[in-house]
């Protein structure tokens, strides 16, 4: 299997599988995962997260949970391929952003780094610029649901709306919040409704 074939297989499993993580966990040991650009995904396996917010462990473990959540929500997305690739790549910036600050693991601005890396990754396999931009925009904005609900200074509804569909951003953010072992589904459903309300949906 070459890189192009692996990309197509990833795409097929993301779109068709009820739990894409089964295939991803099986294939991640392939030597191709240590080559460009799949090494971006491989690095997720070695990147730690705060055990307080992510008791599931590495960024890879979290991403697998998010991808499976997204697979279960894809019927709600207007563009399932964009949505599922964004789910897979949403934290691709964490390996570069992760550091220890005052004894705590942090990954500030990983979504900004992730936007660039998502473009780099997808550009290796497709010249569909609309698709690439749409995925990258969701990666860039996937934290907005948290920023908005917590009234953080990083919230940027107008900027988000210029770049991405807020329904898709909310749906990805919802899957991101559920993709952890200590998730509170009822709380996250409430937060999603609040996010949509802040976006102007009644």
Automatic annotation (TrEMBL):
Record domain HD: where: 59-178
Source organism superkingdom: Bacteria
UniProtKB keywords: Nucleotide-binding
InterPro entries: HD_domain, HDIG_dom, tRNA_CCA-adding_enzyme
Pfam families according to UniProt: HD
GO MF entries: nucleotide binding
Identification of the protein by name: HD domain-containing protein
Species, as recorded: Caproicibacter fermentans
């Amino acid at each position: 299997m070459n890189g192009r074939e692996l990309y197509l297989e990833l795409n097929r499993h993301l779109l068709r599988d009820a739990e894409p993580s089964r295939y991803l966990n099986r294939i991640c040991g392939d030597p191709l995962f240590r080559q460009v650009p799949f090494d971006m995904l491989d690095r997720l396996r070695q990147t730690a997260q705060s055990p307080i917010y992510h008791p599931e462990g590495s960024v890879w473990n979290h991403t697998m949970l998010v991808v499976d959540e997204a697979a279960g929500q894809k019927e709600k997305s207007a563009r399932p391929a964009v949505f599922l690739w964004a789910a897979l790549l949403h934290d691709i910036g964490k390996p570069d952003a992760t550091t220890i600050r005052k004894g705590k693991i942090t990954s500030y601005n990983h979504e900004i780094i992730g936007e660039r890396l998502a473009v780099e990754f997808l550009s290796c396999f497709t010249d569909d610029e609309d698709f690439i931009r749409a995925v990258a925009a969701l990666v860039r904005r996937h934290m907005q649901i948290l920023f908005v609900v917590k009234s953080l200074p990083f919230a940027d509804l107008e900027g988000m709306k210029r770049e991405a569909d807020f329904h898709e951003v909310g749906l990805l953010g919802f899957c991101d919040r559920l993709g952890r072992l200590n998730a509170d589904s009822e709380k996250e459903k409430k937060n999603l409704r609040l996010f949509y309300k802040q976006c102007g949906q009644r």
